[in-house]
Amino acid sequence: PGTVQQLQLQNEELQRAVRDRDDRLARAEANLRALVEQSRTSSAEAARLASEGGTAWRRLDEEMKRAEAAERTVKEAERERSDMLRAYRAVVDERSQLAATVEELATERSRLSQ
Predict the structure, then answer these.
(1) CA-CA distance, 44 to 40, in Å (whole number)?
(2) How far apart, in whole angstroms, are the C-alpha atoms of residue 12 and residue 46?
(3) E strand map for the chain
(4) Residue 106 is inside which H or E element, if any?
């Protein structure tokens, strides 16, 4: 009788140990599933951010190219403006010289007419 009771107690202890192990395995499996899901979510988020980052860099590059083109256009317009101002000043100087020449000729004509 003592041996049967001992075996029953050992059996109960073993069954508790198996239940405890099964519970720990179930919790570990649930934790592992949660980690796998979190990893999938993180990977998807990382892929999305990488894609957005790539898109942002491409947009930035396009905007930089547009800004550079605009800057070249502004510099070209400034050069054209400068050239036009030089040409205008040259015309004004020439007009002044022509006016002076006309005045000299008028003075010479007046002197010769007398």
Answers:
(1) 6
(2) 50
(3) none
(4) helix 2-113
